[in-house]
Amino acid sequence: MGVTKKGKKQILELLQGQISHFGLGTDSSSESEFAENLGDEKFRKVITDNAIDEETLSMDVECFLGSGEANGHDFSEIGIFDSASGGNMFVISNFPPEEKTPLLEWLIDVVIEIK
């Protein structure tokens, strides 16, 4: 059984209407489909942009961090949420620790695909 192209697009549109914030944390082992929160959340910010690509049936979700934001942490986890605090987490991922300093601006780009 498979989800139709129209069904996948509707799922992405529903998700697009729900998600609102990126969260960053410092726990390097939090990634699990059962996770409800980041392991050690340090920062949360409103999503800068999200757009559905109908050709690939994916959604591109972006968050821009300026030089004065989220400094002083070695981030290693990211989550996408529906609230400024607490709320539901829809996506979680771990990555190699990366220090955010005032010398850096970050553009975080997450692609969500419906398979």
Overall outline: globular
Number of helices: 1
Q: Tell me the β content.
A: over 45%
Biggest sheet: strands side by side, in what order?
2-1-5-6
pLDDT under 50 segments (min length 5)? none
Describe this structure in words.
This protein is 12% helix and 46% strand. By secondary structure, it is mainly beta. It has one domain. The relative contact order is 0.27. The mean pLDDT is 95. The strands form two sheets. A four-stranded antiparallel β-sheet has the order 2-1-5-6, with no helix packed on it. A three-stranded antiparallel β-sheet has the order 3-4-7, covered by helices on one side. The chain contains one helix and seven strands.
Features:
115 residues; mainly beta; 4-stranded antiparallel β-sheet; 3-stranded antiparallel β-sheet; 7 strands
Write the layout of secondary structure elements.
Layout: H1 5-18, E1 21-25, E2 41-46, E3 49-53, E4 58-65, E5 73-81, E6 89-100, E7 106-113
Antiparallel strand pairs: 1-2, 1-5, 3-4, 4-7, 5-6
TL;DR?
The chain has one helix at 5-18; strands at residues 21-25, 41-46, 49-53, 58-65, 73-81, 89-100, 106-113. By secondary structure, it is mostly beta strands.
